[in-house]
Design a protein that fits this description.
The chain has helices spanning 22-43, 68-75, 87-92, 117-122, 151-154, 166-179; strands at 4-9, 12-17, 46-51, 57-59, 62-63, 81-84, 94-95, 100-105, 107-109, 123-125, 133-139, 148-149, 157-160, 187-189. It is α+β, with helices and mostly antiparallel strands.
């Protein structure tokens, strides 16, 4: 029913539906409990997010491989890197997986999600659609999950943010070269020119 009762709780009014009988109320409570359990599970899920590049042809000889706005959103403070790979190499880089992994492009929707686990993990509001996100979801009940990867298989290039300062770039390059010496040749500057 459209009627509800208001319970004043701190700074919010909670709207609770009115029911005509006890069974209807019990069924509703059970549905809410199941939904909340699914949402809780979804938000404890280990997810890895990647941008699924769609290369746009600018003219007959040039493809766009970077996005200025993605850099601004995710590395706007100047510090950030972009790991370039393929879906095939991403999958093949996993070593001794401790669990199953789901992979899907994210769906972008205008309407409210239904709050199923799939919707919670693989759906975002339409205003994020420029991200063209690909997500990997580990099916594990652990609080933390460490998956070994083969960095030589995974990483094609590591692009430094176009907004990074020289000092920060030197620090990241030094850390990468000391930790993963084989990746030295894969470090690249962004093709987007930005001057501070």
């Amino acid at each position: 029913s459209e009627q509800g009762k208001k319970n004043y709780t701190k700074n919010a009014f909670r709207m609770s539906p009115c029911f005509s009988d006890k069974n209807e109320e019990e069924n509703y409570k059970e549905l809410v409990k199941q939904r909340d359990k699914q949402i809780s599970y979804a938000y404890k899920t280990c997810v890895s997010c990647w941008t699924y590049d769609i290369h746009h042809l600018l003219d007959s000889s040039q493809l766009v491989t970077e996005d200025f706005f993605m850099w601004k959103v995710y590395a706007g403070n100047g510090i950030g890197v972009r790991i370039e790979t393929t879906i095939e190499d991403l999958i093949n880089s996993f070593q001794n997986l401790p669990c199953d992994i789901l992979m899907s492009k994210v769906n972008y929707k205008e309407e409210e999600p239904t709050y199923s686990v799939d919707e919670a993990v693989f759906t975002k509001p339409i205003y994020y659609d420029k991200e063209q996100e690909l997500r990997l979801c580990a099916l594990s009940s652990k609080e933390e999950l460490f998956i070994k990867i083969d960095t030589k298989k995974l990483i094609h290039n590591i692009l430094l943010s176009p907004f990074i300062s020289r000092e920060s770039a030197k620090g990241i390059i030094g850390l990468m070269v000391n930790t993963f010496p084989l990746l030295k040749t894969k470090l690249k500057k962004s093709n987007i020119l930005e001057y501070k």
